[in-house]
Design goal:
Layout: H1 2-20, E1 28-32, E2 37-42, H2 48-57, E3 63-67, E4 77-81, E5 88-97, E6 110-115, E7 120-125, H3 133-141, E8 147-151, E9 161-165, E10 172-181
Antiparallel strand pairs: 1-5, 2-4, 3-4, 3-5, 6-10, 7-9, 8-9, 8-10
Helix pairs in contact: 1-2
Amino acid sequence: MRASTMGFAALVFAAVGIVTGSHPALAQSGYDRPGGDYASAPVPGGDPAVCAARCERDKGCRSWSFAYPSASGEPAMCWLKRVVAPAVRSSCCVSGVRGAGVVEPRPGELEFSMDRVGGDYRSFETAADPRGNSCAAACQAESRCRAWTYRRPGYGTAAPRCYLKDAMKPPHRKPCCISGVVR
């Protein structure tokens, strides 16, 4: 029940950000908001929406930053902030302003926070990449590949992994991954 409540809350927060048209207030994947921290906590499931929900429940919170788990084993972390610090580009993080929820970008064929489970014909370790570009390029280079999933480090493995797929499976929301369809 609690996970579904948090999922619903994240959806509501995202909708509020979209309806208000206030683009600077939207949560941003690939950005940090350094400074103004007054509380921090690990996020065991590694989902940025949990951090956004924590900020919503805390009346002192004005903005937040979420850091993905690291390859060295550091857990995903959430920092609550008393101020709305300027967003700074950083592949480690997702950040936002209270009331905005999590709205991940979806440029081109990339599916942020999506896993396409199944259909794997090959997987391999790859370099850490906040957009999964090396995995997308590997899929594009192989005629057999129809879709791909890049798994961030710290989500079940120390090193990032690329999964190439010869069958296009439906996407499932998971903060661990970036996916895409090639053909």
